[in-house]
Design a protein that fits this description.
By secondary structure, the protein is mostly beta strands. It has one domain (2-89): Immunoglobulin-like (Sandwich), CATH 2.60.40. Helices cover 0% and strands 70% of the residues. It is globular. The mean pLDDT is 94.
Length: 90
């Protein structure tokens, strides 16, 4: 789906296959500054690792009973034309 922020706009895509959940953010115009990213995972799933563009991210909280995953990104900037993929290995 599409989204709009104060500094830009882009798209967000989410898909699950073969024990992984792919979450992709693409900025079409401007930039996006992320402090935290909240993602829904299937309730009760276990997470073995989280990768953002191939780099492991360890600073996150996962609430297994609700399926809510909160990743602390500390002013992570995605610029125009960039695509960031967050992979959750389940």
């Amino acid at each position: 789906g599409a989204f709009i922020t104060a500094d830009g706009w882009g798209s967000f895509m989410q898909k699950r296959e073969q024990g992984k959940q792919y979450n992709e953010i693409e900025i079409v115009y401007g930039q996006l500054v992320l402090n935290k990213l909240e993602i829904r995972i299937n309730k009760g799933s276990s997470i073995s690792s989280i990768l953002i563009n191939g780099k492991e991210k360890r600073n996150y909280k996962y609430y297994k009973d609700s399926g809510l995953l909160i990743i602390d990104l500390d002013n992570y900037i995605i610029n125009e034309g960039e695509k960031q993929t967050i992979i959750c290995n389940l």
